[in-house]
Amino acid sequence: MLCKHPQIQEKVAQEVRKTTKAKENEPFSEFVESMTEEALEKMQYLHAALTETLRLYPAVPVDAKLCLSDDMFPDGFKVRKGVMVAYQPYAMGRMDSIWGDDADNFRLERWLDNNGVFHSESPFKFTAFQVI
C-alpha cells in the first residue's frame, strides 16, 4: 500500500528517520540498533499505515469457527452445537456499514486522533487478529 501511496510512504519514512535518529548513509547494523521498542512506540503514523493495510488486506481473509455448544449471537440468532460459522474479515474491512462511506479508501486518518496519536478499534470491528 505504501508503494501505491508515495506521499504516505514518504511520511512513514520521515517518522522512522525522526524516531530512530537515523543518519544519512548509516550502516544497516547501526540503524537496526536504533530500532528500539521505545522508538517503535513513537511511530504512530507507521502503526496507522500497518493497521489500515491489514483492514483492507487481512492475513486471513475468511475464517470459520465450529460451535462447540449451543450458543446465541448478540442479535439473538441461535447457533446449535456442531454448526460451522464463517465470517469474512476481507469483506468486513470494506463494509460501509462498519467503516463509513470511504471504506474502500486507504485512509490512515481513521486510526489517528486530532493529535496524530494512534487509536485502536474494537477487535470485533477490526477483526484482522481473529477475535471472533
Q: Would you give an account of this structure?
A:
By secondary structure, the protein is of the alpha+beta class. The protein has one domain (6-111). The protein is 36% helix and 9% strand. The strands form 2 sheets. A two-stranded antiparallel sheet has the order 1-4. A two-stranded antiparallel ribbon has the order 2-3. A hairpin with a 5-residue loop joins strand 2 (71-72) and strand 3. Helix 1 packs antiparallel against helix 4. It is elongated, with a radius of gyration of 19 Å. The two termini are 26 Å apart. The mean pLDDT is 93.
Helix-strand blueprint:
Layout: H1 6-20, H2 28-34, H3 37-41, H4 44-56, E1 63-66, E2 71-72, E3 78-79, E4 84-87, H5 89-92, H6 96-99
Helix pairs in contact: 1-4
Largest sheet: 2 strands, antiparallel
- Weakly predicted, low-confidence segments: none
Which range does the strand content fall in? Answer: 5-15%
Helix content: 25-40%
* Order of SSEs: HHHHEEEEHH
- The count of DSSP E runs of length 2 or more, i.e. the number of strands, is 4
Query: In one word, what is the shape?
Result: elongated
> Which structural class do you get from the secondary structure elements?
alpha+beta
| Termini separation | 26 Å
What's the helix count?
6
Strand order of the largest sheet: 1-4
The overall average pLDDT, rounded, is 93
Cα Rg:
19 Å
Number of domains: 1
